[in-house]
Design brief:
There is one protein chain. The chain contains 2 helices and 11 strands, in the order αββββββββββαβ. By secondary structure, the chain is of the alpha+beta class. The strands form 3 sheets. It has a 5-stranded mixed beta sheet with strand order 3-11-8-5-6. Strands 2-1-4-7 form a 4-stranded mixed beta sheet, with no helix packed on it. The protein has a two-stranded antiparallel ribbon with strand order 9-10. The structure holds copper (II) ion.
């Protein structure tokens, strides 16, 4: 009886592992971990090969954050902004967005990216007592490169 239970558990584990291995991302998918907090956007690496890129976004802060992936020639600190200091997304080439990453949360999303220079940023603004706190202005931005693969 005990042995049968163990065998069943083992089969379940194998099945789960098999499913995870076929979880949608092919062998050519690159992966980048990005850490969000107050007030930083910190990719584990400064660049990734072009093609399918899986972003694992972890929010280690106390606020809700997001990850915008913006294709731009400009430095991440010099993106076009609106009057309240947020990035003007209507004037930015936003190629990917991982929205509403809760404190302590982890979100995984795959985007297809061409070679070039990018900015990773959080464009949330919180209003407290009439003041607008733009996460972007607080420093939630990082330069990032996508390089041609082989
Ligand atoms: Cu933020």
């Amino acid at each position: 009886m005990g042995r049968l239970l163990l065998l069943l558990l083992l089969l379940l584990l194998l099945a789960a592992g098999g499913l995870a291995a076929c979880g949608g991302d092919g062998p050519d998918t690159a992966s980048v971990d990005v850490f969000l907090s107050e007030w930083e956007v910190s990719p584990e690496a400064g660049s990734t090969p072009a093609g399918a890129v899986r972003f694992t976004t972890t929010n280690g802060g106390q606020f809700v954050h997001q990850l915008l992936i913006i294709r731009t020639e400009a430095s991440a600190a010099d993106l076009p902004t609106t009057a309240d200091g947020r990035i003007d997304e209507s004037r930015a080439d936003v190629l990917g967005k991982v929205d509403n990453v809760a404190p302590g949360g982890i979100e995984r999303r795959t985007f297809t990216l061409q070679p070039g220079h990018y900015a990773l940023a959080c464009n949330i603004a919180d209003e407290t007592g009439g003041d607008v706190i733009s996460h972007y202005q607080k420093g939630m931005r990082a330069d990032f490169s996508v390089v041609a693969g082989d």
